[in-house]
Amino acid sequence: MIHFNVPPYFGEEFEYMREAVEAHKICGDGGFTKKCNEWLEDHTGAGRVLLTTSGSSALEMSALLCGIQPGDEVILPSYTFSSTANAFVLAGARLVFVDIRPDTMNIDEKKIEDAITDKTKVICAVHYAGVSCDMDTIMDIAKRHGLFVVEDAAQGVMSTYKGKSLGTIGDFGCFSFHETKNFSMGEGGAILIREQRDVERAEILREKGTNRSQFFRGQVAKYNWVDYGSSYLPSDLNAAYLWGQLQHADEMQADRMASWCAYSDALRPLEERGIISLPVIPDDCVHNAHMFYLKCSDLEVRTVFIGYMRENDILAVFHYVPLHSAPAGLKFGRFNGTDEYTTKESDRLVRLPLYYKLSKQDRDKVIDRTLHFFNTL
Collapsing DSSP states into helix, strand and coil, what is residue 286? Predict the structure, then answer.
């Protein structure tokens, strides 16, 4: 069976985890947590990066740092994972979904302004498949209306927009290091903080509402409970595992990109004949080969294709069911404007296997079976 995803592993991770154990520091903010934070700051240019227990918790921290209050509204795409919405719902916000662009599957920046009301507090930009939203337009809208911008860059580690790392453009950015992402610590994430003024508040939130970080830096005389917070700090064992991945970042990215390009080159003739659609990468964007997807003509063809691939021992999978049509989406939000593309495009999309060390033999089989299926429709 060719799996859809296989978490990366190099063999050095256990050695780093052993070092953490022998240092008698396996809770959060140990040596490996700090190394990962610094690596991410160096490679993204973020003002401050803090590892979190998940991409979800990074989003939750962002919602709290934006000062979300019950009744505030957050604008976001419906085509995203539930974590994006949950973070703001937990803080008391109402969700306002807007349509996506059919080319990138990202929020349609032209539909945002019409969704703004006097209750709007945040625009959440989700960078689907590691391809950036139109951040210039989004930041301009936010500035003119006095809104926060949160980047859900869960899939966007090492992707850029006009030379800027995703997650560093808005007020707050959120990474995920779940096992399905390019770099993994099993469960984990990171919050990227643009402004220095927000760092201390973020540290307090992450440390159960205490000033523990300031205390250990000698900035305060007592370690105390100073505000509300939660346990958003991951174990140093998880950070040690991630550190083993980050040491091979360039190698991993090159390997994933080789698979992505092989798919794109091989399947391009199908697109040229109008049989499928392939991912679009805008000129201002550099992506990270997080996933490779194609879009069938409709839901019926996609369903048959997924079944055909499974019969050939290949796991190809669809992605999100639009949140505005889900029970919780109907409960916690509304769709602004017309759903022209969100449902239609999500029904067409299917993802092919893509992970570090996907063998050429397996990749060629995926390509061969894909070509065979669509050429015999």
Answer: strand
Instruction: Look up the pTM and report it.
Output: 0.97
Residues in contact with 307: Cβ distance below 8 Å, sequence separation at least 6, in sequence order: none
Q: Domain span at residue 212?
A: 13-246
**pLDDT, tens digit (0-9, with 9 covering 90-100), for 291-301:** 999 999 999 99
28-42: per-residue pLDDT in tens? 889 999 999 999 999
CA distance 279 to 319: 14
218 and 332 both lie in a single domain: no
Residue linked to tokens 């989003």: 59
Q: How many CA atoms lie within 13 A of 280 on its CB side?
A: 11
Residue 136 lies in a domain: yes
CA distance 345 to 27: 43
Supply 322's token pair: 């639009």
Torsion angle of the four alpha carbons 43, 49, 53, 56, in this order, in degrees rounded to the nearest 10 = -90
Burial class, 311, CB count within 10 angstroms (exposed 0-12 / middle 13-18 / buried 19+): exposed
- How far apart CA 25 and CA 346 sit, in angstroms, is 45
Confirm if 198 and 220 have CB atoms less than 8 A apart.
Answer: no
* Residue 18 DSSP symbol: H
Query: For the chain, how many residues are written?
Result: 377
